[in-house]
Write a structure and sequence with these properties.
Blueprint (H helix, E strand, L loop, with lengths): L1 E6 L4 H11 L6 E7 L6 H7 L4 E3 L8 H12 L6 E4 L8 H6 L4 E5 L11 H8 L3 E8 L9 E8 L6 H33 L1
Parallel strand pairs: 1-2, 1-4, 2-3, 4-5
Antiparallel strand pairs: 5-6, 6-7
Helix pairs in contact: 1-6
Length: about 200
Amino acid sequence: MNIAVFASGNGSNFAAIAEAIKKGEIKANLKALIVDKPKAYVISRAKEYNIPCYIVKLKDFNNKEEYEEKIVSILKPLNIDLICLAGYMKICGEVLLNNYPNKIINIHPALLPAFKGAHAILDAYNYGVKITGVTIHYVNNEIDGGKIIAQEAVTINDDEKIETLETRIHEVEHKLYVKTINKLLEDYNARIIKC
């Protein structure tokens, strides 16, 4: 199985996936990192793991379709079986969705369908909920709206600071993403064997 990760920022989930593959905890090949921000720290992480990194910026193209066609042209020769979004701050459009149906997953720092969007941890914290968490879901054309694959709850303590909550949620993300990718790969391999 060949995996590509898309990221826009720090890349801690990318590092968790790369480390799990290095240790043999995920039995797959991490073939590419796609990044849309040339100064993103995740690029340094890719160098540490010797993972090919492709910087593709939307502003370099006439429209989103051309941008995604470029990404697809990178991924197709690599025979990518699964795309893992890990802090990728772009909405996947029709070109990606049509080329990789049910093969793009995302990690979200809240218990969907609650607290969709880019500021889910802060939104949950400010709303005052006592339980939040992490969701992994398939990507469709609705923001954080695809079918849920896995979730894990995180309790918000009474006197908790946002910084400690963020740290605890990221710890859950790293473990749950690895576990879920493994499950998807096992299911995929089981389907191949049956054919």
